[in-house]
Design brief:
The chain is built from two helices and four strands. The protein starts with a helix and ends in a 7-residue tail after the last helix. With 149 residues, it is mainly alpha-helical. It has three domains: 70 residues; 29 residues, no CATH class; 42 residues, no CATH class. A hairpin with a 6-residue loop joins strand 3 and strand 4. Strands 1-2 form a two-stranded antiparallel sheet. It is flat, with a radius of gyration of 33 Å.
Length: 149
């Protein structure tokens, strides 16, 4: 076999190998992408089913407790409306206020202070009233950035 014939055979085998690699990669893209999508949807569906089972169990338990007249346990009272708070509640069931007061932050030195503090314990700056702070928070949440043209 001469040198040209050897290169022709080796070249043909290499070309065939590349063709096999290209076809395999196209096949895998055509098969793997839908398979990944299917598995993702299956996982999401399974998570939704698990959540629905948990909510169904909670609903059934709540109805049974209500039918038996079992009242949720309470501990302490709301600082806003002075009604009893359910144990573990994040918000008051009567007025909707948070059950845990949010600490205040000094605008000068950014020290965290007690929720009812009037002055910063670190630098002595007078803290703004809670109404002003909540108004600033609400206004900053409403700001919309308009793109420049």
């Amino acid at each position: 076999m001469d040198q040209h014939a050897l290169f022709a055979v080796v070249g043909a085998e290499a070309a065939g190998l590349w063709l096999i690699i290209i076809v395999a990669s196209l096949f895998s893209v055509a098969i793997v992408a839908p398979l990944i999508q299917f598995l993702t949807n299956f996982k999401t569906h399974a998570q939704l089913q698990a959540r629905e089972r948990i909510l169904s169990r909670r609903r059934r338990t709540a109805h049974l407790e209500a039918d038996l007249g079992i009242v949720p346990p309470t501990e302490g009272e709301c600082v806003s409306c002075h009604k009893p708070l359910q144990i573990g509640a994040a918000f008051c069931a009567y007025c909707g206020k948070p059950t845990v007061a949010r600490p205040r932050i000094c605008p000068t030195c950014y020290t965290t202070t007690q929720p009812d503090a009037s002055y910063c314990p670190q630098c002595g700056t007078a803290l703004p009233s809670t109404a002003v702070t909540s108004l600033r928070t609400n206004l900053s949440a409403l700001r919309v950035r308009v793109p420049r043209v």
